[in-house]
Amino acid sequence: MCGIAGIYNYATREPADAHIVGQMATSMTHRGPDDSGTYFGDGIGFGFRRLSIIDIEGGHQPMANANESTWVMLNGEIYNYKELRTQLTSHGHRFRTASDTEAVVEGYDRWGNQVTNHLNGMFGLAVWDNSKRQLLLARDHMGIKPLYFHDDGRRILFGSEMRSILQDPSVAREVDPAALRIFLTYGYLPSPHTLFKNIQKLAPGHRLIVNESGARLERYWNAIPHIDRTIDIESATERYTELVNQAVSRQMVSDVPVGSLLSGGVDSGMVTASMMRTSPESVQSFTVGFGKDFIWDEVDDAAETARLLGTEHRSFDIDASGFADFFQASTWHLEEPVLSESTFAYHELTKFAARHVSVVLTGQGADEPWAGYARYLGERYGKSVRSLVGSSAAHNVMGHLPSNLYTERLRRATDSLGEHNDLQRFVNIHQVFGSNDVNDLVHRDLRDETRDVDPLEPMRYWQRDVTHLDGLSQLLYIDSRMSLPDDLLLYGDKLAMANSLETRVPLLDKEVMEFVETLPPSFKLRGRSGKHVHKLAAKNWLPDQVINRRKRGFATPVDAWFQGELDTFLHDTMLAADSACGDHFERTELDQILAEHKNGVRNNRRKLTTLLSFELWHRQFMRNSVSEVVA
After folding, report:
1. Helix or strand or coil: residue 249?
2. Who's near 195: CB < 8 A, 6+ residues apart?
3. CA gap 337, 618 in Å, rounded
4. What are the tens digits of pLDDT across the range 450-497?
5. How many Å apart are CA 10 and CA 153, to the nearest integer?
6. Are 193 and 184 in contact (CB under 8 A)?
7. Which residues contact 440 (CB under 8 A, 6 or more apart)?
8. Which among 143, 137, 174, 135 is positioned nearest to 159, based on CA atoms?
9. pLDDT above 90 (res 393)
10. What's the rounded Cα separation, in Å, for the pair 470 and 478?
11. Are strands 134-139 and 156-159 parallel, antiparallel or unpaired?
């Protein structure tokens, strides 16, 4: 786990600015406090920061092949590197280190750009081919690791974090109006969008090939699922169990201590249990809580799971008193505003875990491919409901329900009930602000400037692959490549790396995902219960009392905090005379959103978190120096 950055002057062949390359790498010292390195060639400059995990002595980067015609930087881990080494050795390649990065070096020499097709791992990587004067950038299949770039038509700047690109003062810091409208729709920025007008995010499973002619984007992972109707439940459960065990075993490889982030749920529990079978030593596990008064607190459940599994367990609590500082710190490290109010808690949890271990495995990633969220129930059975009662009846019922988190979820569900267009329905299920809401919220000039922006386009890009599938399978496919990597996995990586902690997600292993996506929807969502085969497989590791616990997710008490202790903070932050929200949005609309939530008229947690996240992001990245560390 590291930070990579660089400059390629592809049109001019001018030397890369060594000072800026150095600053780009230094800005990500938190991602790699153990080592650093640079490489400069014909118009190219690489800067690297390393968190040493595998081959601590021999894994220095940038790393070259024997004749130094190929140079590689890797952020992440290649889990099948041992298999690749064996395969490449049989073809005459010789290895000088035990590093997984060298498998990429030698793999590129054999397969060229197609090396990405042979990798199973989490990565953002850069390969410089000196003979071709070609730069290859790639992001892993599921988008576990981020990679950003800026292309001005003459040169390309890239980095694991946007702050590295912003070290170059010629890269203007401007809000992208189109991206802002998309952010208000989803509560995060789907690839390739960022809120910076001139910075893009490489999408999962994509590579960017840059040479003297310019940049060419390619999608290298095209595993389009086709449902296997011949497999039975027992065989699917057995195969899934085998694949998860293999993935956990691969991802336990490390030369430093490995722990787990353990909630009270089935996903992190089964990963931790599999770790216990693999590890020769006791596994350390970590949990964050919010006190006994919070109904969704997971500390006791996690402690019980830890006791049953025999881990060395630690937990701690946080409360509203530190929210403003925590949220500001997490926004700084995220570099992108996101809806999730769990970011601040995750930041503190990874900081806590990093005091004891350098690597953790998590249970992240099971809900999207396995239909673990309540929203998937509506998609699975919505067609029947539409034919029986229609959307108008559902809306009438909604008007008489109390305002809370659950009714807000139901409102989104009913918004989708009457929509027969699959793509629009998927957006309705996810949206924070609908199209009319956005038009009411933003100032007239911004509304006019973004009127032609199509918020469906990010989803359309992924959906076009799977129109042959049923609606539920389409939505699971899209979510696994859109909201999962650019929301949950983004903050999973950024906030852990802010604390120099590597997080691994074995349930998103490439082989696991390619199998899961071939299973029929009834193997995932059965009755009202999601993750059917996933939970059947969990019986190999966990007792029923853990598997059958009510799903909590990574919940926080922010709803109540926004009505109570944090009401003044919200109001003063979002409605300050010089606020970014005031500059971009109608103050009467902001007042109404705040008042509705405070008075219990409507649960506006998602809208408030989205707006607060934008406000804090704008203050830190549009008004302050990017080198000014907040946390």
Report:
1. helix
2. 175, 176, 179, 180, 183, 189, 336, 337, 614, 617
3. 9
4. 999 999 999 999 999 999 999 999 999 999 999 999 999 999 999 999
5. 9
6. no
7. 586, 589
8. 137
9. no
10. 12
11. unpaired
- Residues 6 or more apart whose Cβ sits within 8 Å of residue 603: 403, 404, 405, 407, 408, 559, 597
Domain limits of the chain? 2-219, 233-369+491-547
Q: Cα separation of 354 and 358, whole Å?
A: 6
Task: Look at the domain 233-369+491-547 and name its fold.
Answer: Rossmann fold (3.40.50)
Is pLDDT above 80 for 431? Answer: yes
Burial 329-355 (b: 16+ CB within 10 A, else e): bbbbbbbbbbbbbbbbbbbbbbbbbbe
- Cα–Cα distance for residue pair 187/190, rounded to 1 Å: 9
Per-residue pLDDT tens over the stretch 184-212: 999 999 999 999 999 999 999 999 999 99
Sequence-distant contacts of 452-457: CB under 8 A, at least 24 apart: 453/177, 453/178, 453/181, 453/182, 455/181, 455/182, 455/185, 455/186, 455/427, 455/431, 456/423, 456/424, 456/427
User: 192: cis peptide before it, omega within 30°?
Assistant: yes
Cα–Cα separations (whole angstroms), residue 170 to 135, 160, 176, 194, 537: 22, 19, 17, 18, 53
At the fourth CATH level, which superfamily is domain 2-219? Answer: Aminohydrolase, N-terminal nucleophile (Ntn) domain (3.60.20.10)
What six digits make up the tokens of 265?
Answer: 């749920």
Cα distance between residue 592 and residue 580, in whole Å: 17
The residue written with tokens 């590689």 in the block is 72
- Here the tokens at position 600 are 């219990």
Residues across the chain: 631
